[in-house]
């Protein structure tokens, strides 16, 4: 089991990667379940992900409230994370973001987002679209409380990603590295599908068997997964924070 | 009430942010109403926004002319600002720019630009398109005098943004931070709508109630607004110029 | 009349700007007519524009051949420049480039490229498409001699830009600053038109009277033109090479 | 014949160029046939191409296995390279990558990728699409063994590029410089064709005679080819590693 210091360093790296890869901008956030206390999770206080440092990470409880005295403002939408951790014991990490190229698929009803490229397989065969208006009517579209969060989590179900109409997406995975990777390739898969539609004719989506085969082969600390994590962290200027697992072979420097 | 020095520092930050976020290039400008003298406004002399420094800010009067001796050239289109301040006492800040991705919506008549993403809500339900040719015939498309400016301001009406056919847009807001934020998300909303149209089928625009709800919740110095301003200023290399309002909690550095 | 040293410094700046603004990459070139000897012109030897320095500028004669001993290789397509200078005494500067976003308009026959945005007005109402195959059959598409060059110049006629099918464009203007500016805004105008077509419905092109009005108002050393030149040179890292004309007011640094 | 040290330096440059030009990210790889032992080839160990250094290059045999003791993990898909070298004695260098803009052409069945721009001519008149599912059914889409690799090589045939459905492409050429150049311009050609299709009407593809003429004129160490290699290496920060062939004239620095 990783120690807390490593978990938090990895969470900072995740924040920086998501900023550098333009999945988040000033908005959007990534969290990680507490490894020793599965009812809690770590997330930054209200701050642009690219600026997050060690002291900015806070520990929140199952209701999305801080477990220690905290005077600094928190993300309004931290309930996305709290509700998904509550509903999905298998989930260890969550991302919420507004990555631009997934937005059209939440707005246009005709074309569901589905995996078409191998690096997009992890989004799963079905990506439901959650519309906050269906249950809550006219809102500011933000997930401001546990009721909102639980409705989103219900829509997500056992899937890995839910689009949020006119807003963004929530993704959930078995590890921090996996949720970051999925969140980076999600917009790329969306662009590939958008452009394939423009070319016209029949689209060859990934087959269910292919999605399953890729899922079976996935390991968050495989050489191939580590390769991307190491590369993205280096691009984002935080290679010095990398903690290499014993069984991963990486760059010698 | 903010002092003049702070206002001008914020205006410089706004110039740099708009350049970094590619809302402006060599052209385009941002202004702010004088906090003590609402008939005057601050704007840079004729200079690319990314190069604007303290001494480049000039004070213009209601006719768009400098209130002090000024030998340096001014923006030809400063009348956009003068006319909007004249017509709209509620407006504290104005942007004019040519951001590329809004241009198609001023050129193609079939698809009005409307908010489809939550960060685009502030452009408002209706974005009128001003065509200078309707009243002035064949011109060089520039807003070269108060007549042009007033016609544009009339088209803008009580809306937040007017597209200018074959040219760009003018946006107006209750604060500098708000007008910058709106101008950054305007092209993003335009891209999301363009791509959603390409996916085909029915488009889910923001509902009027959603636009209203977001508008009610907006505050220029909220934690969430400050988060973006701080992030953009940092990206644009001028975090050292930030003046944090007492009630905003930001990055400790 | 500018001295030769200033002309050459400006030509180096033009090379760097076109590279930074992604009009050229390893390929593409910009030239300037010799101010004292209108039958000659300056252009770099065969080198990526971003790497061009003082010693890389060569002087070519009306046949596109060097007027002094030159052992270094020259651009294969220097005949584009030679032929346009020959045919068009009014032209002082020429660009040839492969800027990506104009390519579709040379390939798809249905949609002519025309100005739709005010900064694109200088390309002129008509942008002919030159197809080397029409006269020369199967070639490698390169303008390898004066015959090719003259055929292209004939297609260009009195226009400012000719697209070259499956290859790129050639643009010609009354000044170096103007040809650079036109070459930077040409792809932007192309993107605006492509996206407007995707939105569907009627397109509002610039009116002939608008193109004429903008053309009448243009001066290569106006404040507005200088503003872009200064900004682009600064972005490209060569603001220290700027030579400000007496009648232009620029950045104090 | 180049010495091994030069070959390996060039291979490192190729890795960095492909990363900088966004042909590869954490994934994708480039290899070069051993100049003295044509049954062997050089490729990096499993590492993001942008991070590859001298010690990361390994020598693999005809079965894609290392010819020396090697404890570090290797690219899972090295069999793409091994199988193409086996099938194509003319091929000296191979790239496999997931460059985003070619993906739609492997997914949408209606529009074959064909050269439309002169810099895209080297992909050849026919770009077959290999679908791993045709022979191997449900897989994780990776080329994990020689059987997969040989099936891909068979689909490639005597062509220069094969698209891999839902995955990426494999390209093969007579020299390292050529395979890099082809891999950089392949996505650009794809974008030009995609956008031309959006403009509608008839598309003017390159003619067979034009493709042939360009192919005849191509030399990996011509001034024109070297110009791009030098420029890209400089952009990628490794101009100091360039080895200029005697007959190429380059930048003096």
Radius of gyration of chain A from CA coordinates: 18 Å
Quaternary form: homotetramer
Shape of chain A: globular
DSSP helix fraction of chain A: 25-40%
Order of helices and strands of chain A: HEEEHEHEHHEEHHH
Biggest sheet strand line-up of chain A? 3-2-1-4-7-6-5
Structural class of chain A: alpha+beta
Number of strands of chain A: 7
Q: What is the residue-averaged pLDDT of chain A?
A: 94
The end-to-end span of chain A amounts to 25 Å
Beta content of chain A: 5-15%
Largest sheet of chain A: 7 strands, mixed
Structure write-up:
4 copies of one chain form a homotetramer. With 253 residues, the first copy, chain A, is of the alpha+beta class. Helices cover 37% and strands 12% of the residues of chain A. Chain A has helices at 4-20, 79-87, 103-107, 132-136, 146-156, 176-199, 208-217, 223-235; strands spanning 29-33, 41-44, 57-60, 93-97, 129-130, 161-164, 168-173. In chain A, strands 3-2-1-4-7-6-5 form a 7-stranded mixed β-sheet, sandwiched between helices. In chain A, β1 and β2 form a beta hairpin. In chain A, α1 (4-20) runs parallel beside α6 (176-199) and α2 packs across α5. The model of chain A is unreliable at 248-253 (pLDDT under 50). The interface between A and B is large, with 39 and 43 residues.
